[in-house]
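QA checklist item 7 of 12: single-chain prediction sanity check.
[x] sequence parsed
[x] length recorded as 618
[x] structure emitted
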Amino acid sequence: MLKKLSLILPILPKLGYSNVAYMLWYRLSLKWGWRKPKFPKAEPINGGFFNAVTPINDYPAQWKELALEKANAILESRLTWFHYHQFKVGNTPNWFQNPFDNSILNNPKKHWTDLSDFDLNTGDIKIIWEPSRFDWVIDLARAYRITGQQEYLDTLNHWLIDWSQHNPLNTGPNWKCGQEASIRLMKLISALQLLEQNLTASKALKQMLYEHLERIRKNITYAWAQDNNHGTSEAAALYIGAVFLLKQTQSNAFKKQLYKFRNKGKQILLNRINKLITPQGVFSQRSVNYHRVVVDTMSWVLSNMQRYEEPKFSKVVLAKLTNLGELQYRMIVNSKGEVPNLGSNDGAMLLNLHHANYRDFRPSTQLFFAALNQEKRFVPGLHDEALFWFYPELLDEKPPTLTNEKGIVNVDDELIILQDTNIKIFFRLPHDRFRFVTCDALHLDIWYKGKNILGDSGSYSYNAGEKSQNFESVSAHNTVQFGKEEQMPKISRFLYGAWLKAQSINTSEPTAEIWSCEASYTDYRKNTHKRMVHWESSLKRLTVIDQLDSPSQESKKLFWQAFDASIIDKITVKTEKGAVLKPDSAQAFHSLYYLQQSDHVRSVSYTHLRAHETGRNL
């Protein structure tokens, strides 16, 4: 306990004294039952949710088969978890079953304050939450709108009624997280807009949306205190959800309360944008996938602000959002829309109005720039469907001639991106602005001809015990480990102590076709790692020089995660005296989707280092 306290005290100012105090209070209030009375249970909502509508006849034929394939899978009782794993679920899903092991949650009728995030008998709570994120609502609503076939509408209403019967307000795990409630609200409102019922929502749906707003509003301080995407998601839902209900044509008994929700939601959202997004667009969680979550959240907010004629954001806020989107655009490395798998990856993809793969970031980026500037970034493709529904006037527009220019960019001292013909390198710099959730300081992610040859192993799961720890470890990244210790000491599941901050950051413009960058850090045990990266364009040669300084006699180990075994033969590691080191090679794992792993990775390591040079011809 004293050791943990000694680790927490130095980072308290960075976590925020008020945030830490609130989190302590929050946990005590849960433990002692003080929070429960704020969230009274309610009866299930009965009745139909979505009404009949006239089908459209201009839906592009090349998308129709794919759209109906998704919806028909649901009619056949097949659902997809984390945009990768598909399971048979029955006539309606058991909302409390883990299909990976068929375990069923004990006591799902408990109040959500009595349930744990990490000690459920069904394992990872995210598995329970996934069907209640309502991707199937969008899939069925779209299929009904483009065909007019009643079975899609009937299934949509039947499943939603069943969900309400088993998940009444504040009962069970699906009410435990305000962000989960926010995602459901976003999906329900988007489905109403697809079905042209956004001003004439049914009484049952208005009640369901209002209950979600109440749940979000009463606990939003908890989301705020985390300084992550919970705050942006919940504030966005509170703001736009209230605006949506205020715009309904039928009289609303909760108008006064909804105005309060709207104002509070917008105020918190602006606060989160200003605090959590750096001037050059880096989001606080240092995760490429969570970056997309925020981009999609803001696309949803911006498009609805336009739809319901809300006042525009200030130029300062719009400038930050522009850089948020530009950084995501810069991350895309190939024609498949792939990005480096940096940081935590929990399987989230809020925008599912398309048929592209989960790893394709073009649909998200395309919609974001449509909502922000009414412009496109990509030529027509599967990534255009959201434009069809929300910005049809842009479908025939030509995107501007934009390319990710050659050069080196330092993005707020958190990431250096080096790009030349056929190569793109992402250099992770530690920064102590926000908390860390993985040990990847000075990690290099290297893409050549659109293929990730040396990369990040991913995060797999947040609740898989030792396996989760292995994916978070320094040994699962392309960097150096001192002894057997991690780069930072672990305090709790999602928090490290002794935060790192990069020093001696330097980038150079190309001289005689040689591009370079460098950075270093010193950890809590006084170990120093300095990494220099050189790219010789004409020779197609990459050289990485690591200088290591340590007060101890512990071994130093260099790791490379090779996604193509043939690349191992192209790596040469030399000591400072020129001796070539022989590698140890072992099977490793790579996770691109939540709870998925592939074993084609070779983890190559080199020990007994002090200073060394890694050379690679491409």
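[x] summary fact logged: The radius of gyration is 25 Å.
[ ] second reviewer sign-off
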